[in-house]
Amino acid sequence: MAEVVDDIIKTLNETNSTDTESVLKKIPATTEGMLIAYTSLVVMALVPIFLGSFRSVEQHIKNKLKKEVPESMTEKDAMMFPVIASGALFTLYIIFRVFSKEHINLLVTLYFYVLGVAALSHILSTKFSALLPKSIPKTKYQLQFTEGTGENKHDWINVKCTLHDVLCFVFCAILGTIYIYSKHWIANNIFGLAFAVNGIELLHINTIKIGCILLCGLFVYDIFWVFGTNVMVTVAKSFDAPIKLIFPQDLLENGILAAKNFAMLGLGDIVIPGIFIAFMLRFDQSLKRKTNTYFNVTFLAYFLGLLTTVFVMHVYKAAQPALLYLVPACLITPMLVALVCGDLKTLFSYEDHKMEPENSSKKLK
Q1: Which residues are catalytic, by number?
Q2: In this structure, are residues 344 and 335 in contact, taking their beta carbons and an 8 Å threshold?
């Protein structure tokens, strides 16, 4: 066992410089091309945060009307998240070192194909239905798979949909098939944006304390795996799935189809701060004021933090842990505003919903 660990450490040390250099050698041919790529990545990062935040408010209102308590992250979950993420990241690194990248990415592509089609259809269903001709009816369907009967009946699958939903799903499946066969960067970004919007909309933190724990833990995680080793960069380059947004830096020279030199931004650098920014918007809504002050300032702080990341990466020609700049910006800014406005106590006492004690449902019946 000790020999295996030594081999892994040796591999890390040997490949740290070579792999990182190979990633960073791709310098854009022109300043214009690099500017277009970075600007596009920044815009693509802001769009899902904005959309996902407002969709999270709509979802929050629906949950309140239905008197449903959504699943949200606990303090323990927030503490364990960086540890679990580190284990998963290092495991992927070892897998890519041991097994063929082609076989692994084939399995990964099929897995993310299913998830991507579901995520994209969830976002487009309403808009897609509005674009369809009125001659296409909203015929209702129900897919149900149950076990047992009577009181022992259990629904494993119980999906209700309309013909419009089915057509939307088929359309998204066609886009997914195009991505599988072409792996084009535009198709990658479509599904990457869908994942980001869904993540920000559906993943909730209940209090700002949980948000602080999560962001601070991932702050350390990102710095260690980017600056400490080449693991993050290697996995990001090897993992052929829409878990990152990419944009060609040689677009002007080679065009949309032949571009090869890509700048990238991981979805984690969008979704994790985005969850916190969405929480700030829900806090704004709870204050019932005319302006979304805390959302606006935190959103602006994220934008400036992202610009700082791009600037430092360009100056030092080195991969940067984006959360190094995004986390302090997103945490410090709203707290300073709350301190000035006298809302600090209200901010730290706010809860999206009242958390029920664990095992409360397991009391005597």
Answers
A1: 222, 269
A2: yes
